[in-house]
Amino acid sequence: xxxxxxxxxxxxxxxxxxxxxxxxxxxxxxxxxxxxxxxxxxxxxxxxxxxxxxxxxxxxxxxxxxxxxxxxxxxxxxxxxxxxxxxxxxxxxxxxxxxxxxxxxxxxxxxxxxxxxxxxxxxxxxxxxxxxxxxxxxxxxxxxxxxxxxxxxxxxxxxxxxxxxxxxxxxxxxxxxxxxxxxxxxxxxxxxxxxxxxxx
Length: 200
Description:
7-stranded mixed sheet, Rossmann fold
Protein backbone atom coordinates (compact mmCIF):
# COMPACT_ATOMS: atom_id res chain seq x y z
CA UNK A 1 0.00 0.00 0.00
CA UNK A 2 1.23 3.47 -0.84
CA UNK A 3 0.78 6.62 1.24
CA UNK A 4 -2.55 7.52 -0.38
CA UNK A 5 -3.99 4.07 0.37
CA UNK A 6 -2.84 4.28 3.98
CA UNK A 7 -4.37 7.76 4.24
CA UNK A 8 -7.69 6.31 3.12
CA UNK A 9 -7.44 3.42 5.56
CA UNK A 10 -6.81 5.78 8.47
CA UNK A 11 -9.62 8.09 7.37
CA UNK A 12 -12.02 5.14 7.32
CA UNK A 13 -11.01 3.81 10.74
CA UNK A 14 -13.42 4.80 13.49
CA UNK A 15 -11.53 3.40 16.48
CA UNK A 16 -8.06 3.36 14.99
CA UNK A 17 -6.34 0.77 12.85
CA UNK A 18 -4.13 -0.75 15.54
CA UNK A 19 -4.24 -1.77 19.17
CA UNK A 20 -3.67 1.03 21.67
CA UNK A 21 -0.40 -0.41 23.02
CA UNK A 22 2.82 -1.37 21.23
CA UNK A 23 3.44 -5.06 20.61
CA UNK A 24 4.20 -6.88 23.84
CA UNK A 25 7.70 -7.85 22.69
CA UNK A 26 8.58 -4.19 22.08
CA UNK A 27 7.36 -3.24 25.55
CA UNK A 28 9.36 -6.04 27.15
CA UNK A 29 12.60 -5.02 25.43
CA UNK A 30 12.17 -1.28 25.96
CA UNK A 31 11.36 -1.63 29.67
CA UNK A 32 14.87 -3.00 30.22
CA UNK A 33 16.52 0.00 28.54
CA UNK A 34 17.52 3.36 29.97
CA UNK A 35 15.45 6.05 28.23
CA UNK A 36 17.24 8.22 25.69
CA UNK A 37 16.50 9.13 22.10
CA UNK A 38 14.30 6.92 19.94
CA UNK A 39 13.01 6.70 16.38
CA UNK A 40 9.73 4.89 15.74
CA UNK A 41 9.76 3.90 12.08
CA UNK A 42 6.37 3.58 10.34
CA UNK A 43 4.80 4.98 13.50
CA UNK A 44 1.25 4.91 12.11
CA UNK A 45 -1.10 6.38 14.71
CA UNK A 46 1.83 6.66 17.09
CA UNK A 47 1.07 4.00 19.67
CA UNK A 48 4.71 2.93 20.12
CA UNK A 49 6.05 6.48 20.02
CA UNK A 50 3.54 7.63 22.64
CA UNK A 51 4.27 4.68 24.91
CA UNK A 52 8.00 5.39 24.77
CA UNK A 53 7.49 9.11 25.38
CA UNK A 54 5.40 8.35 28.46
CA UNK A 55 8.40 6.48 29.82
CA UNK A 56 10.90 9.27 29.33
CA UNK A 57 12.15 8.72 25.79
CA UNK A 58 12.62 11.66 23.41
CA UNK A 59 10.95 10.16 20.35
CA UNK A 60 10.72 10.90 16.65
CA UNK A 61 7.76 9.15 15.00
CA UNK A 62 8.11 8.79 11.23
CA UNK A 63 5.41 7.78 8.75
CA UNK A 64 4.48 8.60 5.16
CA UNK A 65 0.75 8.83 5.91
CA UNK A 66 -0.44 12.34 6.76
CA UNK A 67 -3.71 10.93 8.11
CA UNK A 68 -1.88 8.58 10.47
CA UNK A 69 0.28 11.39 11.79
CA UNK A 70 -2.74 13.62 12.30
CA UNK A 71 -4.28 10.91 14.51
CA UNK A 72 -0.95 10.44 16.29
CA UNK A 73 -0.56 14.15 17.01
CA UNK A 74 -4.17 14.47 18.22
CA UNK A 75 -3.71 11.60 20.65
CA UNK A 76 -0.29 12.54 21.92
CA UNK A 77 -1.12 15.63 23.97
CA UNK A 78 2.02 17.28 25.30
CA UNK A 79 4.40 14.35 25.14
CA UNK A 80 7.95 14.44 23.82
CA UNK A 81 7.25 13.12 20.32
CA UNK A 82 8.32 14.87 17.15
CA UNK A 83 6.07 13.71 14.29
CA UNK A 84 7.70 13.60 10.85
CA UNK A 85 6.00 12.86 7.56
CA UNK A 86 8.58 11.07 5.43
CA UNK A 87 9.40 7.89 3.56
CA UNK A 88 12.00 5.69 5.24
CA UNK A 89 13.78 5.36 1.90
CA UNK A 90 14.50 9.10 1.80
CA UNK A 91 14.60 10.33 5.40
CA UNK A 92 17.23 9.93 8.09
CA UNK A 93 17.52 11.43 11.57
CA UNK A 94 19.81 14.36 12.24
CA UNK A 95 21.64 12.26 14.84
CA UNK A 96 21.84 8.58 15.67
CA UNK A 97 19.37 7.23 18.23
CA UNK A 98 19.63 5.06 21.30
CA UNK A 99 16.64 3.02 20.15
CA UNK A 100 15.21 2.42 16.68
CA UNK A 101 11.93 0.50 16.49
CA UNK A 102 10.07 -0.72 13.40
CA UNK A 103 6.74 -2.47 13.88
CA UNK A 104 5.05 -4.09 10.88
CA UNK A 105 7.03 -2.21 8.26
CA UNK A 106 6.59 -4.42 5.18
CA UNK A 107 8.18 -3.35 1.91
CA UNK A 108 9.27 -5.00 -1.33
CA UNK A 109 12.87 -4.25 -0.31
CA UNK A 110 12.61 -5.38 3.30
CA UNK A 111 16.26 -6.35 3.74
CA UNK A 112 17.69 -3.11 2.37
CA UNK A 113 15.12 -1.03 4.30
CA UNK A 114 16.07 -2.72 7.58
CA UNK A 115 19.76 -2.29 6.75
CA UNK A 116 19.10 1.41 6.14
CA UNK A 117 17.30 2.04 9.40
CA UNK A 118 19.97 0.10 11.28
CA UNK A 119 22.36 2.89 10.29
CA UNK A 120 20.37 5.21 12.56
CA UNK A 121 21.27 3.27 15.71
CA UNK A 122 23.96 4.80 17.93
CA UNK A 123 26.86 2.70 19.19
CA UNK A 124 25.51 0.93 22.25
CA UNK A 125 21.97 1.47 21.01
CA UNK A 126 19.22 -1.01 20.28
CA UNK A 127 17.32 -2.02 17.14
CA UNK A 128 13.95 -3.75 17.46
CA UNK A 129 12.04 -5.01 14.42
CA UNK A 130 8.79 -6.96 14.59
CA UNK A 131 6.55 -7.92 11.71
CA UNK A 132 4.50 -10.62 10.07
CA UNK A 133 6.46 -13.77 9.27
CA UNK A 134 6.02 -15.64 6.01
CA UNK A 135 4.66 -18.58 8.03
CA UNK A 136 1.76 -16.37 9.06
CA UNK A 137 0.07 -17.11 5.73
CA UNK A 138 -0.19 -20.84 6.36
CA UNK A 139 -1.18 -20.20 9.98
CA UNK A 140 -4.18 -18.17 8.82
CA UNK A 141 -3.16 -15.12 10.81
CA UNK A 142 -4.22 -11.60 9.86
CA UNK A 143 -1.87 -9.45 7.80
CA UNK A 144 -0.40 -9.31 4.29
CA UNK A 145 -0.67 -12.39 2.13
CA UNK A 146 2.20 -11.60 -0.23
CA UNK A 147 5.25 -13.62 0.89
CA UNK A 148 7.55 -11.22 -0.97
CA UNK A 149 7.00 -8.53 1.70
CA UNK A 150 6.94 -10.77 4.77
CA UNK A 151 9.77 -11.51 7.17
CA UNK A 152 11.83 -14.53 8.13
CA UNK A 153 14.48 -14.68 10.84
CA UNK A 154 17.07 -15.29 8.13
CA UNK A 155 16.03 -12.13 6.25
CA UNK A 156 16.22 -9.89 9.31
CA UNK A 157 19.45 -11.36 10.61
CA UNK A 158 21.00 -11.05 7.15
CA UNK A 159 20.09 -7.35 6.96
CA UNK A 160 22.61 -6.53 9.70
CA UNK A 161 26.39 -6.34 9.47
CA UNK A 162 29.14 -7.11 11.96
CA UNK A 163 28.54 -3.91 13.88
CA UNK A 164 25.50 -5.55 15.52
CA UNK A 165 25.20 -8.24 18.14
CA UNK A 166 21.95 -10.11 17.67
CA UNK A 167 20.27 -10.74 21.01
CA UNK A 168 17.22 -12.41 19.55
CA UNK A 169 15.98 -13.22 16.07
CA UNK A 170 13.17 -15.73 15.89
CA UNK A 171 9.57 -16.51 15.06
CA UNK A 172 6.98 -15.88 17.75
CA UNK A 173 3.32 -16.86 17.80
CA UNK A 174 0.71 -14.49 19.20
CA UNK A 175 -2.43 -16.19 20.46
CA UNK A 176 -5.94 -14.99 19.77
CA UNK A 177 -6.05 -13.21 23.16
CA UNK A 178 -3.25 -10.86 22.05
CA UNK A 179 -4.30 -7.21 21.83
CA UNK A 180 -3.06 -7.04 18.24
CA UNK A 181 -5.62 -9.61 17.14
CA UNK A 182 -8.75 -7.52 17.13
CA UNK A 183 -11.92 -7.64 15.09
CA UNK A 184 -12.62 -11.29 15.72
CA UNK A 185 -9.41 -12.80 14.38
CA UNK A 186 -9.79 -16.50 15.02
CA UNK A 187 -6.25 -17.69 14.26
CA UNK A 188 -2.93 -17.12 16.01
CA UNK A 189 -0.47 -14.89 14.17
CA UNK A 190 3.18 -15.65 13.44
CA UNK A 191 5.68 -12.79 13.65
CA UNK A 192 9.42 -12.44 13.32
CA UNK A 193 11.21 -10.52 16.06
CA UNK A 194 14.70 -9.03 15.81
CA UNK A 195 16.46 -7.51 18.82
CA UNK A 196 20.01 -6.35 18.18
CA UNK A 197 22.55 -4.05 19.82
CA UNK A 198 25.08 -1.98 17.91
CA UNK A 199 28.46 -2.75 19.44
CA UNK A 200 30.68 -0.56 17.22
